[in-house]
Amino acid sequence: MSVIFRNIVLRRIPFCISHLYLYAVYFIDISLLCTMLPIFLRISETMITKFLKFACVGLSGVIVDFSITWFFKEVVKIQKYVANAIGFTVAATSNYFFNRIWTFESHDPQIAIEYIKFFSFSLVGLGINTLILWVLVSKFKQRFYLSKLFAIGVVTIWNFFMNWLFTFVN
Fold first, then answer.
1. What CA–CA distance (Å, rounded) separates 45 from 61?
2. Alpha carbon of 2 to those of 5, 86, 160: distances in Å?
3. DSSP per residue, 29-66
């Protein structure tokens, strides 16, 4: 609940009613958590194993991404967001092959379609990545590479679930 809302609205409501409202909000939050908890507990070991493998592949992708981004930004001297897009794209392509073979053990003979799905989710991830970078660097004046690391973390979660649910379906 926003502080502004609490300060403006709840001051005008009698004490007992305002506290009943607060208790109701907290009760709803707790009841929602209790409702969602069984869903979170049903996460299978297979999914956790796949996520850990995905994260390992992603770590190799981070190295590829940072290396390519650094090369194009610092050596070639192209604009940082373009360099970021190139690094992200090269890393996504290498990640596809490692995830296909090791993480999801896919034997789908339609590799091109599978790659297009994977790359499409990666492009959406690139949009999320670039938006996070832009907000953190331009609006909040954070360091570029630290912001990039945070963006990669967010996009890793996006990419895993989209690919687990739609690309590498067994």
1. 24
2. 5, 40, 32
3. HHHHHHHHHHHHHT--HHHHHHHHHHHHHHHHHHHHHH
CB 159 within 8 A of CB 61: no
Residue 109's SS3 state is: coil
Q: Considering only CA atoms, which of 113, 128, 114, 116 is closest in space to residue 158?
A: 128
Q: For the chain, which residues score pLDDT lower than 50?
A: 1-28
62 close to 85: Cβ distance less than 8 angstroms: no
pTM above 0.70, yes or no: no
Enter the tokens of residue 120. Answer: 């499409």
Q: Which two tokens stand for residue 57?
A: 């592949």
Phi-psi map region of 77: left, alpha, beta (phi>0 left; psi -120 to 50 alpha):
left
pLDDT at 40: 55
